[in-house]
Amino acid sequence: MDQATTPATMRAISQDAAGTPDVLKVVETRRPVPGRGEILVRVHAAGVNPADWKTRERGVFASGAKPPFTLGWDVAGVVEAVGDGVTLFQSGDEVFGMPRFPHPAGAYAEYVAAPARHFAPRPKSLNHIQAGAMPLASLTAWQALVDTAKVQPGQRVLVHAAAGGVGHLAVQIAKARGAYVIGTASAPKHELLRSLGADELIDYRTQDFTETLRDVDVVLDTLGGPNWGRSLRTLRPGGTLISILPLDDTFPTEEARAAGVRAVFMLVEPDHAGLREITSLVEDGHLRVIADEVFPLEEAARAHTLGETGRTTGKIVLSVNP
């Protein structure tokens, strides 16, 4: 379908103010038009991430954009049209990506227009729902463990909230790099994490990881707050603590320096090359994504309510154009 036959309007989820999930409403709005270097994607699935509900609650994007706006970055769908200069894709190609982060991408909608190189071909072994669950979480784990920490075979990697969206993918990526992987998660999730490759598991409800862990090379911290300082104590000299949460005064920068370790904040970026590396892991059987719950687009508020409980395993996904 070309732009001449594509509908001029679309359904999207919009919010006019900061607040609880009930600020998310279905609206009819104009379909975007791809500009130079952009593609128009008919969205089949949109992943739901903590960044989404935190942005909704604050009522402002990290980039400064204010309501009304449409949330969402994870996209899986089919290229509907291409803008001038695009050679990477053509109409009909199946793609997935995390466009524009941390600027608004508007993934909770029937169509998204964004730079072509913020996408990659959808892994053939994944359906749209699985692919829609993958980009932001997998790129976060990849950029943290591979690009930032440069995890090597035999290193000891600690992943906090290992059964979460980023965590369950980080466990697999670290394992694929040849690491010894330790995860923190509640006991009912241990069996799943072992099946994903975790070598050692700690039930955070009954065990204090700082009492049992030493000589860790890399910590991926998705929790923040007091966990930063506690994680620091498990690292060997020369180790790396990576936070994917914005830093505040409790981040142990000076303590890390005194201990001879590195403590850094990492913000995930759109990454065509990274998505292709992730696709290779998927196709080789080293990486699978868990879509814990799937909601129709119009139930985005329910998806946020569930996500904010912090009790899900893997990812939550919106089915947009089944």
Record keyword descriptors for this entry.
322 residues, globular, 7-stranded mixed beta sheet, 6-stranded parallel beta sheet, Quinone Oxidoreductase, Chain A, domain 1, 26% helix, alpha/beta, Rossmann fold
Q: What would your notes on this structure say?
A:
- It is built from 10 helices and 15 strands.
- It is of the alpha/beta class and 322 residues long.
- The protein has 2 domains: 9-134 and 289-319, Medium-chain alcohol dehydrogenases, catalytic domain (Quinone Oxidoreductase, Chain A, domain 1), CATH 3.90.180; 137-265, Rossmann fold (3-Layer(aba) Sandwich).
- It starts with 8 loop residues before the first strand and ends with a strand.
Outline of the structure:
The chain is α/β, with parallel strands linked by helices and 322 residues long. Helices cover 26% and strands 26% of the residues.
Largest sheet: 7 strands, mixed
CATH class of the largest domain: Alpha Beta
CATH architecture descriptor of the largest domain: Alpha-Beta Complex
Number of strands: 15
CATH fold category name of the largest domain: Quinone Oxidoreductase, Chain A, domain 1
Mean model confidence by pLDDT: 96
Share of helix among residues?
25-40%
Uncertain ranges: none
The first-to-last residue Cα distance is: 17 Å
Q: What gross morphology would you assign?
A: globular
Number of domains: 2
Number of helical elements: 10
H/E series: EEEHEEEEHHEHEHEHEHEHEHEHE
Radius of gyration: 20 Å
User: CATH H-level name of the largest domain... which superfamily?
Assistant: Medium-chain alcohol dehydrogenases, catalytic domain
In percent, how much strand structure appears in the residues? 25-35%
What would you call the structural class?
alpha/beta
